[in-house]
Design brief:
By secondary structure, the chain is α/β, with parallel strands linked by helices. It folds into two domains: about 140 residues, Rossmann fold (3-Layer(aba) Sandwich), CATH 3.40.50; about 60 residues, Orthogonal Bundle (DNA polymerase, domain 1). Helices cover about 40% and strands about 15% of the residues. It contains nine helices and eight strands. α3 crosses α4. The longest helix has 14 residues. The radius of gyration is 17 Å and the shape is elongated.
Length: about 220
């Protein structure tokens, strides 16, 4: 039942929408714009902070030539309060414990910058489970480029079966391009229906993960 299991972070391991939205809205306040509802900002999440800011700029009809400036400003706001309201999804701590007890080796592959990703994992007492954490700025590439995922697996001290766990269209595309089985968490930040997202297994309760992993690697 042993496997290398790599997880996406936002929308898969943790619900971080509140802190991401707060950082984005602080930036909008800095430029004299009204805040956006969380549901709107949720649609911006999934391809890393620069893409979130780009989508925010387009939505608010701000000048695109301010993208670099506003990305750095949003990152500053986010780094200052990256774990104020962020929490693990129900069942995640127990599932990670069970996977480790099964002998699985765990990693994180996220488009969030590495420093705040590590901060969130540490603040929520999840970092002890992971042997590798690669963020969106850890390499020249990021998801859905499969090289980001391959590098995350290669950083783990394990050479057996590989599984990727995520919640979004970006994660699904990454797994598909890497030819790695994909477990889709249906309660995260996906923008389309479960049926439209390629996956090996879908689940809506994280406590079911150890059983699903065991079934996928039992052969």
């Amino acid at each position: 039942m042993t496997a290398a299991v790599v997880f996406d972070l936002d929308g898969t391991l943790v619900d971080s929408l509140g802190d991401l939205a707060a950082a984005a809205n602080r930036t909008l306040d800095d430029v004299g714009r009204d805040p956006l509802p969380h549901d709107v900002i949720k649609g911006f999440v999934g391809n890393g902070l620069p893409k979130l800011v780009e989508r925010m700029i387009r939505h608010c009809e701000l000048p695109l030539d301010r993208h670099s400036e506003l990305t750095q400003l949003t990152l500053k706001h986010y780094n200052a309060a990256a774990s104020e309201t962020t929490i693990p999804y129900p069942g995640i701590p127990e599932a990670l414990d069970a996977l480790r007890q099964m002998g699985c080796v765990l990693g994180v592959c996220t488009n969030k910058p590495e420093a705040p990703a590590r901060h969130v994992l540490e603040a929520l007492n999840l970092s002890r489970h992971f042997d590798a954490v690669l963020g969106g700025d850890s390499l020249p590439t990021r998801k859905p480029d499969p090289r980001h995922l391959f590098a995350s697996f290669d950083a783990l001290p394990f050479s057996g079966p590989r599984l990727f766990v995520g919640d979004s269209e970006v994660d699904a595309e990454t797994a598909q391009r890497a030819h790695i089985p994909f477990l889709l968490f249906t309660e995260g930040y996906r923008k389309t229906s479960v049926e439209e997202i390629p996956h090996t297994v879908a689940y809506d309760a994280s406590q079911n993960l150890p059983t699903l992993v065991a079934e996928l690697v039992k052969d």
